[in-house]
From TrEMBL:
Ranges for domain Acyl-CoA oxidase C-terminal: 482-660
Amino acid composition bias (Basic and acidic residues), ranges on this chain: 10-21
Positions of the UniProt region annotated as Disordered: 1-21
Subcellular location: Peroxisome
InterPro entries xrefs: ACOX_C_alpha1, Acyl-CoA_ox_N, Acyl-CoA_Oxase/DH_mid-dom_sf, Acyl-CoA_oxidase, Acyl-CoA_oxidase_C, AcylCo_DH-like_C, AcylCoA_DH/ox_N_sf, AcylCoA_DH/oxidase_NM_dom_sf
Annotated FAD binding sites: 147, 186
Annotated metabolic or biological route of this protein: Lipid metabolism; peroxisomal fatty acid beta-oxidation
UniProt name for this protein: Acyl-coenzyme A oxidase
Catalytic activity annotation: dodecanoyl-CoA + O2 = (2E)-dodecenoyl-CoA + H2O2; octanoyl-CoA + O2 = (2E)-octenoyl-CoA + H2O2; octadecanoyl-CoA + O2 = (2E)-octadecenoyl-CoA + H2O2; (5Z,8Z,11Z,14Z,17Z)-eicosapentaenoyl-CoA + O2 = (2E,5Z,8Z,11Z,14Z,17Z)-eicosahexaenoyl-CoA + H2O2
Active site: 429
């Protein structure tokens, strides 16, 4: 990646002293050398294309950022056609690497990630024939309008209505209250001319719950809102500056009956409602989206750790020994303790995301044929993992920013933008606490089935043997991955058992089910978290058993897995000590092992982040540059600020000069 660039001598030394070839881990992470080769070809095409170059986003207003993204998005669609990119993976990679800012949503992101997949998954063949060609060729640009100002995760509470009129065979769309305004959909504010609208279906005064409708919101001639449509941008946000998240409301907007997406549920011309084969069919799309969030959380955390680790090797600070040169910041064990657990977590989440995508693809064919038996488990697992990984990624990225000291506060580091764009992952596609409670609901159901003698399978198979385990008298090897997986399994099983007992106690105390559930919710979330963490640790350990894994990288990946498990164990040590499953000696041993593992990982730290294979154009970080030449580029970046275009800013003449002159005159 460095090419002929002059590399900072400290970073060069780090790379020369690593114990493995980073490309071998890169191949492992991405699925093989051919995939990596193709990825790099597409990166080069996107990042080196002069048509995509633009001023640093940090120096642009929100409106300028939006215009920049729109221009690049249009260029992107043309170039994808020109380059004849037809493979879905190729297009995803290419879009990712021309996203404005590298970490912002790709151009037409909701059109690609939600609007089109909804048409693919929920439209009838006739509806696909009508709309897909137009959508795939960007004649119509769509978004997914579900969240409202007053309702998000609780879909049944959506207030937007679609009332069927059998006389005209139309649906009448209305926004009955201010809280019913659609709020947050990306590309809604100024870009989209269509949306898939989630609205409460009413027929003859009866509600049939939320259903998807295809609704045109802007003219295809002049892009003005259609009659009865109120639409606009919601204003500046914490992140995603270039994205026009929008609001949307309707007043008696009529759409044809055929505009309800009817692959599963239908409304006949006379108003007869035809139920879907199963209410769980929508889970499939949710599982896919949440699996992507797990992947993206791993990637986001990996970017932040890459920036902080490289900078911690370039930055030298204080005196460790009198008279000796200032050491690299990463030589301080406290800095390693800040960064290395999140480095391990990034690898763990990366592999977990891959597993979730693989599981989804394995079962998607049987789901499409109507066999949905696996969906409840996948839905519960993906909900818990989505919450766990996005929560940890948010905390880890902020820790990485803090680990970069003062310069981490600068947009030059790239970390504020990366963090701001990752943090909504804890909210969108399901607020995380609600997601954990959905996982907990499945765990309670599975636990009760196990009590009735049913044999459980998949991610909850371990609940079949839920029972208190007495403290072991033997001394455990706290580096053994099997023993660590056993510990996480026991913790998850015990916390599920205790949550179930607490729920039962609340019911026996006279509470009805909803109140008992609410009273137990903290225990339920804790159980779901333990279940999700067990899956991540177990998956990481299992991925290391691949016989194709090169021995030169097996050792360092094993250390990462051990560190991830041990750090989780020590952080949650009370859970393992409460029932005596582990002893104080075990936990103290685990702490000592963490220090030992960090010392062994220290020489390989830069190689491990290099293996993520993020080019500079994606990191968008001066602190995380591959060549490590931080300080000269930090100065150049600062000089490029619009405030530095003149030596004397115009505000001096307007405000400061009169103020100074008036003060002088008083003396």
């Amino acid at each position: 990646m460095a090419g002929t660039r002059t590399v900072n001598p400290d970073l060069r030394k780090e790379r020369e002293s690593s114990s493995f070839d980073p490309d071998k881990i890169t191949n492992f992470l991405y699925g093989g050398p051919e995939i990596v080769k193709r990825k790099r070809e597409l990166e080069s095409l996107a990042l080196n294309d002069p048509d995509y170059q633009h001023e640093d986003l940090n120096f642009l207003s929100n409106e300028q950022q939006y215009e920049t993204q729109l221009k690049k998005g249009i260029l992107m669609t043309k170039k994808i056609q020109k380059l004849n990119l037809t493979d879905a993976q190729d297009m995803m990679i290419y879009r990712r690497y021309i996203a404005v800012g590298g970490s912002d949503s790709p151009s037409f992101g909701l059109h690609v990630s939600m609007f089109l997949p909804t048409l693919y998954g929920q439209a009838t063949q006739e509806q696909k024939d009508k709309w897909l060609k137009l959508a795939e060729n960007y004649v119509i640009i769509g978004t997914y309008a579900q969240t409202e100002m007053g309702h998000g995760t609780f879909l049944r509470g959506l207030e937007t209505t679609a009332t069927y009129d059998p006389q005209t065979q139309e649906f009448v769309i209305n926004t009955p209250t201010i809280t019913a305004y659609k709020w947050w959909p990306g590309q809604l504010g100024k870009t989209s001319n269509y949306c898939v609208l989630m609205a409460q279906l009413y027929i003859h005064g009866k509600s049939y719950g939320p259903h998807p409708f295809m609704v045109q919101i802007r003219s295809l001639q002049d892009h003005k809102p259609l009659p009865g449509v109120i639409v606009g941008d919601i204003g500046p946000k914490f992140g995603y500056g270039p994205v026009d998240n929008g609001f949307l409301a309707f007043h008696n907007v009529r759409i044809p009956r055929e505009n309800m997406l009817m692959k599963y549920s239908k409304v006949e011309p006379d108003g007869t409602y035809v139920k879907p084969p199963s209410t769980k069919l929508a889970y499939g799309t949710m599982v896919l989206i949440r699996a992507n969030i797990v992947m993206n959380s791993g990637r986001a955390l990996a970017k932040a750790v890459t920036i902080a680790t490289r900078y911690s090797c370039v930055r030298r600070q204080s005196e460790m020994k009198p008279g000796q040169p200032e050491p690299q910041v990463l030589d301080y064990v406290t800095q390693q303790y800040k960064l290395f657990p999140y480095l391990a977590a990034a690898y763990a989440f990366w592999l977990t995301g891959q597993t979730m995508m693989s599981v989804y693809m394995t079962f998607s064919s049987q789901i499409s044929k109507g066999d949905i038996s696996v969906l409840p488990e996948l839905h519960a697992l993906s909900a818990g993992l989505k919450a766990l990984t996005s929560w940890v990624a948010n905390m880890g990225m902020e820790e990485c920013r803090l680990a970069c000291g003062g310069h981490g506060y600068s947009h030059a580091s790239g970390l504020p933008r990366h963090y701001a764009n990752q943090t909504p992952g804890a909210t969108y596609e399901g607020e995380n606490t609600v997601m954990m409670l959905q996982t907990a609901r499945y765990l309670m159901k599975s636990y009760n089935q196990s009590l009735q003698g049913e044999k459980l399978a998949g991610s909850v198979a371990y609940l079949s043997s839920v029972q208190p385990v007495p403290a072991a008298s033997r001394t455990r090897n706290m580096l053994d991955l099997g023993a660590l997986c056993d510990a996480f399994r026991h913790r998850a099983a015990r916390l599920v058992h205790e949550a179930a007992m607490q729920l039962r106690n609340e019911r026996q105390a006279g509470k009805d089910q909803p109140d008992a559930w609410n009273a137990t919710s903290v225990d339920l979330v804790k159980a779901a978290m333990a279940h999700s963490q067990y899956f991540v640790v177990k998956n990481f350990a299992e991925r290391l058993t691949d016989s194709r894994l090169d021995s030169s990288i097996s050792a360092v990946l094993t250390r990462l897995c051990q560190l991830h498990a041990l750090h989780g164990l020590v952080t949650n040590s009370g859970d393992f000590l409460e029932d005596g499953y582990l002893t104080g000696t075990d936990v103290r041993q685990a702490r000592r092992h963490i220090n030992t593992l960090m010392a062994k990982l220290r020489p390989d730290a830069v190689a491990l982040v290099d293996a993520f294979d993020f080019p500079d154009g994606i990191l968008n970080s001066i602190l995380g540059r591959y060549d490590g030449n931080v300080y000269q580029h930090l100065l150049e970046w600062a000089k490029a600020s619009p405030l530095n275009k003149t030596d004397v800013h115009q505000s001096y003449h307007k405000y400061l000069k009169p103020f100074l002159e008036a003060n002088r005159a008083k003396l």
